[in-house]
Amino acid sequence: EADFNEQLRLLGYQLDQQAEDLSITLYWQPLQVLDADYVAFLHLLDGSGNLAAQVDQAPNSLYPTSWWAPGEIVRQVVSLSLSGLAPGNYHLTSGLYDPITLDRLPLSEGGDSFTLTAIEID
């Protein structure tokens, strides 16, 4: 779980790693009425912390975050290409930002992104 500024919570995720891509399902829960239509980002960072791959997408393009009701659970499915990445260890991080201001929604415990898991690419 990750709590974003007491506005939105990442309840959990599911990960399916294939040879050429990752399929990530994120489960979001608003804690209050949201005043922005946030975009979620997934960053795959190499062992040095450099960005190796990324995807930015609204959790649900047909159901923007400003429409979400507090307490409901919204599922987001994201595909991240692993094509062309060097073998090694990576970290998958996630966060949210306002696409108009580009301001990231901070985590309640500090920072503005949350490490979901380590990924090993052979």
Structure notes:
With 122 residues, the protein is an all-beta fold. It has strands at 2-4, 8-17, 21-30, 39-45, 51-57, 74-81, 88-97, 114-121. The strands form 2 sheets. It has a 4-stranded antiparallel beta sheet, with no helix packed on it. Strands 5-4-7-8 form a 4-stranded antiparallel beta sheet, with no helix packed on it. A hairpin with a 3-residue loop joins β2 (8-17) and β3 (21-30). The protein is globular.
Helix content: under 10%
Largest sheet: 4 strands, antiparallel
> Radius of gyration in whole Å, from Cα?
14 Å
Number of strands: 8
Please state roughly what percent of the residues sit in beta strands, choosing from under 5%, 5-15%, 15-25%, 25-35%, 35-45% or over 45%.
over 45%
End-to-end C-alpha gap: 28 Å
Mass-distribution shape: globular
Question: Widest sheet: strand order?
Answer: 1-2-3-6
The sequence of SSEs as H and E is EEEEEEEE
